[in-house]
Amino acid sequence: MRDVIFAFNENAGKAFLERLKGKKPLFACVIGVTETAKIPGISAAGKYPDLTDYTPPADVELLLLGKCKCIHGVPVTPEGIPTPALITKAALGLADLPVLVVSGGLKIKPQIPFFDLGGNPGGDIRTGNAVKNAEEVFEKAKLLGENLAKIAEYLVIGESVPGGTTTALGVMLAMGVNAEGKISSSMPNNPHELKIKTVEAGFRASGIKFGALANDPLKAVSCVGDPMMPAFAGLVAGAAESIPVLMAGGTQMGAILAIVKALKPKILGNVAIGTTRWVIADKTADLAGIVAQIADVPVLAANLDFSLSKFDGLKAYEAGVVKEGVGAGGACIAAILKSSGMISSVGLLAEVEKIYNQLVSSDVT
Amino acid sequence: MRDVIFAFNENAGKAFLERLKGKKPLFACVIGVTETAKIPGISAAGKYPDLTDYTPPADVELLLLGKCKCIHGVPVTPEGIPTPALITKAALGLADLPVLVVSGGLKIKPQIPFFDLGGNPGGDIRTGNAVKNAEEVFEKAKLLGENLAKIAEYLVIGESVPGGTTTALGVMLAMGVNAEGKISSSMPNNPHELKIKTVEAGFRASGIKFGALANDPLKAVSCVGDPMMPAFAGLVAGAAESIPVLMAGGTQMGAILAIVKALKPKILGNVAIGTTRWVIADKTADLAGIVAQIADVPVLAANLDFSLSKFDGLKAYEAGVVKEGVGAGGACIAAILKSSGMISSVGLLAEVEKIYNQLVSSDVT
Fold this sequence. Notes:
homodimer, alpha/beta, 14 helices
């Protein structure tokens, strides 16, 4: 398993991987949007801020259909670097993994089947009113997680929510996790200052302080979170009672972990975080430093390396652009495991390049 | 397996059951509504015609939560006989089977997680414009079926759509299946004449004749069907390519079978119909006579017997009220199989009575 890095809590990580070997996973992708992503400079998950409403539905269309329907081409950063959904799609395709999509709250509906949990699009966290019905969405997601746990042997859960690291910072600070300066970004120049100012405005608007909502995670989500969070946390809470769950994402998973720990601490032994090497290598962030404050769960990373790619749009990942998203790292880990290592980082890059080439070509014609 | 009746194509039915033994099923319930159900005298799936919009969401709330949220109590016929969802719930609960809900088109959303396929509530078939986007819903459901087939070992698919036998009659006649006088009803006095008049009005409005749409099943659905149909047929088309599918329902399954046969005849070897003894015993209907016209698939029936029930509301099933719905028969067959016969018709009645008692009590308080 040289293609999986043990980034935190190595022994538990190895034991967790052993439990997953030979088992059949289900990949669930939780999507949502927040007005927070439209604050200039916050998110690179869309060519323009207003396009961030289309990124999550386009990402899951890519996973299920092999192409996007609600936008032309694929989601890109302002510099044209493509969505990590390409990596997720490559992993799911190579390993023939099933995918289910869960909406936490959207403006644009994807042209694929998706689970509706009654969620709404998220507000700008500077208003202090970020998510309308976090508790309802959490409860429905928990019920869904319980049912999925009866058919899947383990769950890999990814997410796509532009602006998600800023809302994650908000929820972690509200819950007393010192994540300041530790959260990652889809941009190479991590705008820590802008993010903390945004969160501080939300704190002022909702009258909360650092750690004030340590025991009320869904209130924290309601004030300064995003609609992906209650759906993701509910799925974990429902499924990890009976099967292992790989939470696939970067530093945002710190917020989910804090929510799950506050609401259902007993299931943490069934939980690990799966991400990419690019998040682990990010010198502007500290995923292990976040997780260590919350719970002793392992952090695994897919040892992806795009430095030898023939496409500049993929090489850019090595420069710290995008890094993670749409469960890319966790999907790669699941693909590697399911194939007993036959699917490697090298094979994954080749598949990503194939998909990239097809979609860039079809974008041109 | 004395609790399963082989009602049509016995040898194939026995072989089909053998294939399911020891396997883990997933129960999917497809729901939808149609204005057709509001024609006085057409449907007993609701206390009043206007309440039929609430019956499907209430049915699936019962399956997932053990109680209804969008209505008080449980769905009942005008005479107060309770929904067959009680039977489905008993079977799923005893065998601990997972449930996923799929919406084909609703007016009232259930308070549980459900798959959105972009469908709309159905129109009155007398207008000839019954279902808006049948093709879109079919394609999305197919994609969902393909993905579910990667996690479940077989699918049991049920439905809840008030007015569904009339729309089934419409689609079968449009496709050249002579179902006149052969479709069942949720009422003991089967209103065949009203149903055929309703379908004839739809034929006039859409300018079609018997058999005119034999090769265009989704057009038949668009003109005189209901929104459950493209979702149900799409799930079968997507899943039965790789796993067995038990289509759980009564004579409505004739319409689904005709649609599937027209669009994907190769998968019929992976398909069977599962229903209740009450449908088979219905002298006003002829499920086998319908199926024989379409395809050589087996028809199985759960050998349920409520004649000794201590509740009049359940005894009424023996008088031919309700008979089937919400996949009751198929869910019972799956529960019997999963338990290797430990779950019996007697045990199922006891569990139905337990649930009935709880929900009637909670209705009173």
